[in-house]
Amino acid sequence: MSWCPDTAKVKKKMLYSSSFDALKKSLVGVQKYIQATDLSEASQEAVEEKLRATDRQ
């Protein structure tokens, strides 16, 4: 799961995004990634719903 708040400055969001991209490439075997921008999107219920939604695609 990646989490970057909406309130973060653009420069920090860009740095986070590029760092997370590099991390994803190094994590062989991880099939799903979830992004959250506030705590409600990082709740167990929200994560489970996002995982179910990606299974339907």
Automatic annotation (TrEMBL):
<dbReference type="GO" id="GO:0003779">
    <property type="term" value="F:actin binding"/>
</dbReference>
<dbReference type="GO" id="GO:0015629">
    <property type="term" value="C:actin cytoskeleton"/>
</dbReference>
<dbReference type="GO" id="GO:0030042">
    <property type="term" value="P:actin filament depolymerization"/>
</dbReference>
<protein>
    <recommendedName>
        <fullName>ADF-H domain-containing protein</fullName>
    </recommendedName>
</protein>
<keyword id="KW-0009">Actin-binding</keyword>
<feature type="domain" description="ADF-H">
    <location>
        <begin position="1"/>
        <end position="52"/>
    </location>
</feature>
<dbReference type="InterPro" id="IPR002108">
    <property type="entry name" value="ADF-H"/>
</dbReference>
<dbReference type="InterPro" id="IPR017904">
    <property type="entry name" value="ADF/Cofilin"/>
</dbReference>
<dbReference type="Pfam" id="PF00241">
    <property type="entry name" value="Cofilin_ADF"/>
</dbReference>
<comment type="similarity">
    <text>Belongs to the actin-binding proteins ADF family.</text>
</comment>
<dbReference type="InterPro" id="IPR029006">
    <property type="entry name" value="ADF-H/Gelsolin-like_dom_sf"/>
</dbReference>
